[in-house]
Amino acid sequence: MKNFKLIAFLLGMLSISSCDNSSEEIKQANEPEVNQKMYSLGAKFVDPQTYESYQKVDLEALTMKYMGKNASAAKTTLPSSYTITSSPVGNQGAEGSCVAWATAYAAASSLEYNFKGMTFPNATRSPEYVYNQIKIGTCAQGAYVTTGLNLIKNQGVCSWSEMPYTDTSCSTLPNTAQKNAASTHKFTSWATVNKTDLTAVKTLLSMKLPVIIAVTVDDAFYNMGSTGWIWKSHSGKNYGGHAICVVGYDDAKQAFKVQNSWGTSWGQSGYFWIDYSFFAKSFGGAINECYVAYVQ
């Protein structure tokens, strides 16, 4: 009888343990997988007063230069959707090099292709060249977007083939040959963009001018797969700043298309979207800083 009671007790404990394990498995299965894998960020934000002091984009001058019409006329003839041709999505890996990927790899490469007649892969600019010179502290700590913009304006940026990217070291500085190669691939200038003027942002994109943005990554950013990869609001934990490049828009989606630097297995083959209204919010919206760079 005692043996029977002991066996019954042990079977009961086994059953409880099994139920607990099943509950834990269900809990883990329901947790968003993307939150289990953190990606490298790296954008530092300037203070609001400094940001306001920067030159603001002269849309009137740009539309006359690139389209031969004034800004008002350019805005009224916008297509309902547009995507700029840029370099293929890449992966910044373990370094906090997103600023270099947004300014050099995405934006500068696009300008080389669309305005200087270069073809890929020759048009692809080196994030290694930029990040290794502008990083703050360790390889993981990142940089300011404006530092990257100024470096490309003053020095230029060589091609990927001339200085390939690696995320295993950021201590290698460009040599004389690489700096000479960079010197003919400079930004003419850069300026801030009014994020609240959606038509102006779309006009810049329609002129094949990518828009570089700095955002705060949070849980909603990591979990936007549940909303069709359209980022619509902030929520959850703040993980830090991230620099990325807006390369298009779609009025049907009511969203801007953004090229990320986390590889093609993330998002929609490496891209995602930012809802128009979230993009344009003055306070608490998607955008912390918004820039455009251009060339002759």
TrEMBL record:
<comment type="similarity">
    <text>Belongs to the peptidase C1 family.</text>
</comment>
<protein>
    <submittedName>
        <fullName>C1 family peptidase</fullName>
    </submittedName>
</protein>
<dbReference type="InterPro" id="IPR038765">
    <property type="entry name" value="Papain-like_cys_pep_sf"/>
</dbReference>
<dbReference type="InterPro" id="IPR013128">
    <property type="entry name" value="Peptidase_C1A"/>
</dbReference>
<feature type="domain" description="Peptidase C1A papain C-terminal">
    <location>
        <begin position="78"/>
        <end position="293"/>
    </location>
</feature>
<dbReference type="Pfam" id="PF00112">
    <property type="entry name" value="Peptidase_C1"/>
</dbReference>
<dbReference type="InterPro" id="IPR000668">
    <property type="entry name" value="Peptidase_C1A_C"/>
</dbReference>
